[in-house]
Design goal:
The chain has about 100 residues and is α+β, with helices and mostly antiparallel strands. Helix content is about 35%, strand content about 20%. The chain has helices at about 15-20, 45-60, 85-100, and strands at about 25, 35-40, 65-70, 70-75. Strands 1-2-4-3 form a 4-stranded antiparallel beta sheet, covered by helices on one side. A hairpin with a 2-residue loop joins β3 (about 65-70) and β4 (about 70-75). The relative contact order is 0.24. The structure holds the ligand C[C@H](O)[C@H](O)[C@H]1CNC2=NC(N)=NC(=O)C2=N1. The site of the ligand C[C@H](O)[C@H](O)[C@H]1CNC2=NC(N)=NC(=O)C2=N1 has 7 residues, from loops. It catalyses: (4aS,6R)-4a-hydroxy-L-erythro-5,6,7,8-tetrahydrobiopterin = (6R)-L-erythro-6,7-dihydrobiopterin + H2O. It is an enzyme of class 4 (lyase). One of its GO terms (biological process) is tetrahydrobiopterin biosynthetic process. Keywords: Lyase, Signal.
Length: about 100
């Protein structure tokens, strides 16, 4: 009830915001969402990362779509409440990138 309603990013503000998460790409197929694949040393590292992200995601009430096999985590971010990209996606992507930087292959 105190959660701000997420607003879809405008075409004008997207380039500068996406430039802050250069390893993320728009998904193919016309869906308004971004994706990135992370590779870790092993499953323990991948699942540790996912656990840390899960705690933040729950706090944000912003949940990733993700797929894990062994050391690979494929992630898609979109905001269902605005049917597209919002600042929540940019912010969660940045948090994920920061966490990822704390692991080493
Ligand atoms: C009520 C609840 O907070 C909302 O439905 C949240 C939950 N998690 C969410 N996650 C994502 N990715 N997008 C949303 O719009 C969203 N909405």
């Amino acid at each position: 009830s105190e959660m701000a309603v997420p607003v879809k990013l405008t075409a004008e503000e997207r380039p500068a915001l996406l430039a802050t998460i250069p390893q993320w790409a728009m998904v193919e197929g016309g869906r308004d969402a971004i994706k990135r694949t992370y590779l870790f040393a092993d499953f323990n590292q991948a699942f540790s990362f996912m656990t840390r992200v899960a705690l933040v995601a729950e706090q944000m009430a912003h949940h990733p779509e993700w797929f894990n096999v062994y050391n690979r985590v494929e992630i898609t971010l979109a905001t269902h409440d605005c049917n597209g990209l919002s600042m929540n996606d940019i912010n969660l992507a940045k948090t994920m990138d920061t966490f990822f930087g704390q692991y080493k292959l």
